[in-house]
Amino acid sequence: MTEETQSQIERTLVLLKPDAMARGLAGQILARFETTALKVVGTKMKWMDAEFTRKHYADLEERLGSEVYNMTATFMQQGPVMALVLEGYDAIATVRKIVGSTYPDQAPAGTIRGDFSHMSRGASVAVGKAVANLVHASGNREEAAQEVDLWFAKDELFDYKTLAETYNC
Ligand code: ADP
């Protein structure tokens, strides 16, 4: 692998949100990432509390206001989430592409949000709920580094080679 290619190998945090877990979609969602040659290097389940939610969504209230923050916090604490650290070439942007836009009704078919969820932002907000969009994924390199650090200790992350890496495919 060239140095340039190596520098594009990234790690990113993905959460399968409580709606994904409640609907039994973890396996299907994980398969989407694995078939794109993204490697699972860390995984755990966690039931988020108010303090941890605040740390994870540190800028959400400032960015989208307290109403959206409160709805999202309540939503994220309604059940356990599955946290994953995925590694691969351009992993951060690739995962966001596979996940699709924030609002499921605007997410194209073929994306996780577009295929498995359909509720519009308006429909969710009308019933006082956060947009149920199944997955969280880090937005950029800085966010990915912070989030991986928040969710995983160093010894919970693993280095190993997949067959795809061995055969460079
Ligand atoms: P993304 O998860 O796509 O990166 P954001 O970071 O902007 O999106 O928002 C975090 C989460 O907050 C979203 O995934 C969604 O669950 C919820 N959310 C965002 N905007 C709204 C909104 N206008 N109304 C209700 N919930 C929202």
Features:
169 residues; alpha+beta; Alpha-Beta Plaits; four-stranded antiparallel β-sheet; 11 helices; globular; binds adenosine-5'-diphosphate
- State the name of the first-level CATH class: Alpha Beta
Radius of gyration: 16 Å
Low-pLDDT windows of residues = none
User: What structural class do helix, strand and pairing data support?
Assistant: alpha+beta
By CATH, the architecture is named 2-Layer Sandwich
Biggest sheet statistics:
4 strands, antiparallel
Please report the number of helical segments: 11
Query: Which small-molecule species are bound to the chains here?
Result: adenosine-5'-diphosphate
Family: Belongs to the NDK family.
Cofactor: Mg(2+)
EC number: 2.7.4.6
Protein name: nucleoside-diphosphate kinase
Short description:
The protein is of the alpha+beta class. It contains eleven helices and four strands.
